[in-house]
Design goal:
The chain is α+β, with helices and mostly antiparallel strands. The protein has a single domain, classed as paralog of FGE (formylglycine-generating enzyme) (Alpha-Beta Complex), CATH 3.90.1580.10. Helices cover 14% and strands 21% of the residues. It contains 5 helices and 14 strands. The longest helix is centred in the N-terminal third of the chain and has 11 residues. It starts with 21 loop residues before the first helix and ends with a strand. It binds copper (II) ion.
Length: 300
């Protein structure tokens, strides 16, 4: 049987193949994003619990265009796909270390501990800690494929976004989506922290920073789909891990980016930023065991 040897369909030599569009990139990355309608809302909070210092209070009127956002933060499995496709090295790997919460570093050799973070002695700089070894050398992701990727810097998050046809949400988009359509509520599910005695997010219970009773089910990260989603279908916007946003923190000469949502380390005795309106920042090149990210994209 004759075979067709024509090469007409091959690209002419020297001509680069077309870059796939964002939707194709997202599909290749295995990402499906939720569609968030445009709308106006009160961003921030006037609650006595809200922080003036953080710029959480007073609330202000805000408008967001329709956009898309992931239902969960990026998982270890999703991030691995990116690393395997690109060979990308994260900033934690380039620097050779990352911040690990002290209770998770207990078995490590002292020689791996570079020191503690100023003012937060429970953060240890651990040599060899990075996304695939979140507690340093010898640690692994077995049983945590569906947990949020951590030890990723702002630049790492942007690199993943470029590869996956996405972007980081702005802070305002993040809050609008995290509110899930509720007006002025403290949390993504309402005003009561544990409705009917049921935990709805992953923060710290017990004595911070020495003992976590894990009453909510988790000492460290939880699977990204733990607990119920909010009204827009977002899982864990609050608690679990902090999420990088595209927004710059006001009045700073270094590159500080707003992070939102709080983490499994939030506890009222030290940090109650697990409210949906709460905000803080980190230096863009920081990586820690409690910060990840959630991707977004423009609407069509
Ligand atoms: Cu906190």
């Amino acid at each position: 049987m004759p075979i067709n040897l024509s090469r007409r369909s091959a690209p002419p030599a020297g001509e680069s193949t077309q870059t796939p569009d964002a939707a194709t990139l997202r599909q290749r990355a295995g990402l499906e994003l939720l569609e968030i309608p445009s709308g106006e809302f009160r961003c921030g909070s006037d609650s006595p619990l809200a922080s003036d210092e953080d710029g959480e209070r007073p609330s202000r009127q805000a408008y967001v265009e329709a956009f898309r956002i992931a239902s969960t933060s990026v998982t270890n499995a999703q991030f691995r796909r990116f690393i395997e496709a690109t060979g990308y090295r994260t900033e934690a790997e380039e620097f050779g270390w990352s911040f690990v919460f002290h209770l998770f570093a207990e078995g490590l050799d002292d020689s791996l501990i570079k020191g503690t973070a100023a003012g937060t002695p429970w953060w240890l700089g651990v040599e060899g800690a990075y996304w695939a070894a979140p507690e340093g050398p010898g640690s692994h992701l077995r049983d945590r494929e569906d947990h949020p990727v951590v030890h990723v810097s702002y630049a790492d998050a942007l690199a993943y976004c470029r590869w996956s046809g996405t972007r980081l949400p702005t802070e305002t988009e993040w809050e609008f989506a995290a509110r899930g359509g509720l007006e002025g509520a403290l949390y993504p599910w309402g005003d009561e922290f544990t409705p009917g005695g049921e935990h709805r997010c992953n923060i710290w219970q017990g004595e911070f920073p020495s003992s976590n009773t894990a009453e909510d089910g988790y000492v460290g990260t939880a699977p990204v789909r733990a607990y119920q989603p909010n009204g827009y279908g977002l899982f864990n916007p609050c608690g679990n891990v902090w999420e990088w946003t595209a927004t710059s923190w006001e009045s700073s000469t270094v590159d500080l980016r707003v992070i939102r949502g709080g983490s499994y380390l939030c506890h009222d005795s030290y940090c109650s930023r697990y409210r949906v309106s709460a905000r803080t920042c980190n230096t863009a090149d920081s990586s820690t065991g409690n910060t990840g990210f959630r991707v977004a994209a423009d609407a069509d």
